[in-house]
Every structure is written in C-alpha cells, then in structure tokens.
C-alpha cells in the first residue's frame, strides 16, 4: 500500500496473520507496483489520493467448443477445380476422354474431384453420361471462385468473468489469493447469444481464413466444463481528499501496465454495489473490522456544510454544455482554470465573445501546469484568445500561473486544478480539463467527473483570489 505522508492508513486488502516466516514478494511485482504508483499517483488530479494498489486474481472463463469450420482450400486444389471446369467447357466432357487427356487412370484422385463438382452443383451428367457445366458452374468459372473445405475443429476462448468480453489472447496467470468472484456462467445459451462475437474472434484468430458454420454435435459441443483461470491485474484505488460526497474511484491495469477500460468500468460498478469487493479475508474479526472502516468511510464522505453546501455530481459529458451555458448566461464575471489550453478551447471562443460583449463583464482564464514546452498552449487557439483580449481591453484577464507563481510562491510550479465559476450562481470543481478536453460522446473518453456547488460562491471567489494572490479589486 502506498500512502500520502499526511494520510490516515486505510486497509483494504486483509490477510490472515501469517505463521512463521513471511515469504517476500517477487521482485517484478514490487517493480510494477512502484511504476504504477509513480506514474499514476496524480492521475485523477489533486482532489484524489492513490491509497492502494492491489494485485488481483481476475477471473477469465476458459471455454473449448467443437465446431464445424469452413475454410479456403489450398491454391493447388482451387486451380484444379478451375482447370477441370475449363476442360469440360472446352469439349473434353467424357470421363475416359478426360482421363486420357490428363494421362491418369480412372481411379485417380483427380477423378474424385469430379464427383465433388457434381455434389456442389457445378457440373452434371447428360443423357449420354457426359459432363456438362451448369449455370452455377459457368458463373463459378467466370469469377474464379473456390469450393470451401469443411472440417471439425476445437476452438478455445476466454470469457471475462465480470464484463462478458470474449477474447483469445493469452492469459497472464497469477497465483494470488485475491480472487474476484466470476459473475458469468458460460453454457450453451451463452454461446448461442454470443454466437456472432465468438465466430468473429475465431475468424480473426485464423487470420480471416476460416469461419464457423455451426456447432458440431450441439449437445456435446462444449468439450469440457468451462473453468475459471485467473489473470494478474492491478487495481489502483483512489480516495477523495475532501469530504464532498465524491465516490472512491478504481482503475485497472494489466501486467504490461496498460489501462483496461472495460475492466475499470466494471470494477467501479461492482464496488459501488459491494464495498467489500476487495476484502479477501476469511477471518471474521478482520472482516468486522473492515466493515467498521467502510461504514466510517461512508460517514466521513457525506457532504459537510463548509464551503460546499448544496451540490450535485456532474458526469463527464455534462461539462461541455455547462461551460457554454455559463458563458452565454453569466451577467458579471466568469473564471475558468485548467492545466492546458488546447484546440478544445476553440469550442468556447464564440461563447466567450458573447459574454464579453455584455456591458461590464469580466472573464478570467488561468492556465499552466508547468513551464515546459510541451505544456505550452496550442498556438492558433491561444492567438485567438489574445485577439479577444485585445478587442475587449481590460475585460479579459489571462493568468499564466507558472509565471505568476514564480514571483509569489517558491514551492509552486503551476496548476492541476480544474475550476469554473459563474457570477455568484455556482462553481464547479473536479477532474474535467475545461480548456483541453472536448468531452464529446461517441469517442474513447476518460472519466472526468466533477461537483457543482450552489452555496457560498462569493466566498469561493475570495478563496481562489486569496490562494493565488490575485488582485481582489478585479472582482469587487
């Protein structure tokens, strides 16, 4: 467990006290935990702390089924079929004549292919037992098609025990005792319901050369009882710093330290239903202790009547409309703070000008996570903001916080806060990057939630300007 030095310990991964010698953790696990902590400890912004990293045994249901498979024949066999059809069309349409021309005996394997062509309806026999092409055979010859081969095969795949996602990827197995319980049952009904997905995975695993035609011996198609095997993943558990009712957030990573988006969403959903999801102890005393801590955590996370007052949670996709609406409807002052200014800011330039056109309005933009080149604003977008500043002289104030802090605070390099304040109506705090993230549906997206507060807004204005030593006369 990794903790902030000022943070109270919070145990989530309970084990019985070991007897005798304690086996040290493997070196690579420690290295992965260290890498994850150092890389992602601030991943949810300064409003969350990365309290814990747990190695989980994540359930994947290994399933093997019997299937009837259709595949492309070898090029030689395809060419042979085309050659035979062309030869018959050219007039060599009697069996002995055809064998003589090819220099083969009547029982040669090539003659067997003539029976296959008849079976497939590409040729038939006339009244004199001579071969002739059917209409289907003529089209087959013109388009250089092939006769698919069929075979019985076994196909093994894995079903995610929480999300039901189907994969054929190799599993990085673990012997960890922290086993999550599978919520998925794999049987014939599951296979039928997910038939298209299973067939797609099969085709991709065979480089698109094959596809499943049907289950072979339906009632016995599952070769052996599906069983859970356990994959190593890491759950990073973030706790909110402030007591504003925010929920604990979980992010999942695999052994290669890549983010597992579907698993992340599923773990958050399961944890919201079962706060004891990550308790793997069978010790009743320890379990009761854990329950007590959970209840205290719930109690401490209830909203307190400090600066917060009345509030509501804001989902990722609500932010874009909120900032546009704030700029269009505000009557006096608006404050926007975000670490980066990117192209996404262009979505709000028109709304910014709409606001600045109103009499006696004032817009504040504060930005900058550090002074590195990669953190500089997007040039074209920033130039448009400067143009607005020049057009509405003394009405748009831009704070480059790394430069501002340099002359006032020795220990500050920039901001990672995301804040929106509209008049004295409301303020929003959270993880949404107002000026660098478009927040559009239909794309891969990060979970960037926030909280909208409706009380004590005037006090919050003063708090921000005091914290940063801005000129408070500007908001008087």
Would you mind describing this structure in some detail?
The chain has 476 residues and is of the alpha+beta class. Among the domains are: 73-147, Arc Repressor Mutant, subunit A; 311-475, Endonuclease, Chain A (2-Layer Sandwich), CATH 3.30.870.10. Helices cover 33% and strands 22% of the residues. The protein has helices spanning 27-40, 75-89, 95-102, 109-119, 135-143, 188-193, 195-205, 261-273, 284-300, 319-329, 349-357, 379-391, 401-406, 457-468; strands at residues 48-71, 123-125, 131-133, 149-160, 166-167, 210-215, 227-240, 249-254, 311-314, 333-338, 362-367, 396-400, 419-422, 426-430, 450-453. It has a seven-stranded mixed β-sheet, sandwiched between helices. Strands 1, 4, 5, 6, 7 and 8 form a six-stranded antiparallel β-sheet that branches. A hairpin with a 5-residue loop joins β4 (149-160) and β5 (166-167). The chain is elongated and about 110 Å long. The two termini are 47 Å apart.
Secondary-structure blueprint:
Elements: H1 27-40, E1 48-71, H2 75-89, H3 95-102, H4 109-119, E2 123-125, E3 131-133, H5 135-143, E4 149-160, E5 166-167, H6 188-193, H7 195-205, E6 210-215, E7 227-240, E8 249-254, H8 261-273, H9 284-300, E9 311-314, H10 319-329, E10 333-338, H11 349-357, E11 362-367, H12 379-391, E12 396-400, H13 401-406, E13 419-422, E14 426-430, E15 450-453, H14 457-468
Parallel strand pairs: 10-11, 11-12
Antiparallel strand pairs: 1-4, 1-6, 1-7, 2-3, 4-5, 7-8, 9-15, 10-13, 13-14, 14-15
Helix pairs in contact: 10-11
- From the 3D structure, determine the CATH topology of the domain at 311-475: Endonuclease, Chain A
Overall 3D shape: elongated
What can be said about the biggest beta sheet? 7 strands, mixed
- What order do the helices and strands follow? HEHHHEEHEEHHEEEHHEHEHEHEHEEEH
């Amino acid at each position: 467990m990794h903790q902030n030095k000022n943070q109270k310990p919070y145990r989530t991964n309970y084990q019985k006290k070991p007897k005798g010698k304690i086996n040290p953790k493997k070196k690579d696990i420690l290295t992965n935990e260290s890498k994850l902590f150092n890389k992602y400890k601030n991943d949810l912004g300064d409003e969350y702390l990365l309290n814990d990293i747990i190695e989980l045994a994540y359930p994947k249901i290994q399933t093997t089924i019997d299937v009837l498979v259709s595949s492309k024949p070898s090029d030689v066999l395809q060419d042979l079929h085309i050659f035979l059809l062309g030869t018959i069309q050219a007039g060599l349409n009697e069996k002995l004549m055809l064998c003589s021309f090819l220099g083969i005996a009547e029982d040669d394997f090539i003659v067997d292919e003539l029976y296959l062509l008849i079976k497939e309806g590409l040729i038939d026999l006339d009244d004199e037992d001579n071969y002739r092409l059917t209409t289907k055979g003529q089209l087959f010859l013109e388009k250089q098609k092939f006769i698919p081969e069929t075979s019985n095969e076994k196909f093994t795949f894995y079903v995610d025990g929480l999300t039901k996602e189907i994969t054929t990827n190799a599993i990085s197995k673990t012997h960890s005792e922290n086993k999550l319980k599978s919520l998925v049952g794999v049987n014939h009904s599951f296979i039928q319901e997910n038939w298209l997905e299973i067939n797609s995975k099969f085709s991709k695993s065979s480089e698109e050369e094959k596809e499943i035609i049907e289950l072979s011996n339906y009632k016995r198609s599952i070769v052996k009882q599906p069983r859970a095997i356990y994959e190593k993943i890491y759950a990073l558990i973030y706790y909110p710093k402030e007591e504003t009712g925010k929920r604990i957030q979980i992010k999942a990573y695999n052994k290669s330290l890549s983010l597992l988006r579907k698993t992340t969403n599923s773990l958050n959903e399961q944890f919201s239903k079962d706060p004891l999801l990550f308790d793997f102890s069978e010790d009743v005393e320890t379990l009761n202790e854990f329950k007590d801590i959970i209840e205290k955590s719930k109690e401490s996370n209830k909203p307190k009547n400090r600066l917060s007052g009345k509030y509501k949670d804001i989902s990722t996709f609500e932010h874009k409309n909120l900032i546009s609406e704030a700029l269009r409807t505000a009557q006096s002052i608006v404050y926007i703070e975000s670490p980066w200014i990117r192209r996404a800011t262009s979505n709000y330039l028109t709304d910014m000008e709409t606001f600045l056109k109103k009499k006696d309005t004032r817009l504040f933009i504060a930005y900058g996570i550090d002074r590195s080149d990669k953190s500089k604003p997007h040039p074209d977008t920033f130039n448009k903001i400067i143009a607005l500043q020049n057009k509405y002289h003394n009405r748009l104030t831009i704070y480059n916080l790394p430069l501002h802090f340099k002359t006032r605070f020795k220990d500050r390099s920039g901001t990672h806060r995301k804040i929106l304040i509209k008049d004295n109506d409301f303020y929003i705090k959270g993880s949404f990057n107002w000026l660098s993230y478009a927040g559009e549906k239909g794309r891969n997206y990060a979970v960037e939630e926030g909280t909208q507060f409706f009380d004590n807004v005037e006090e919050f204005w003063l708090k921000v300007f005091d914290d940063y030593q801005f000129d408070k006369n500007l908001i008087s």
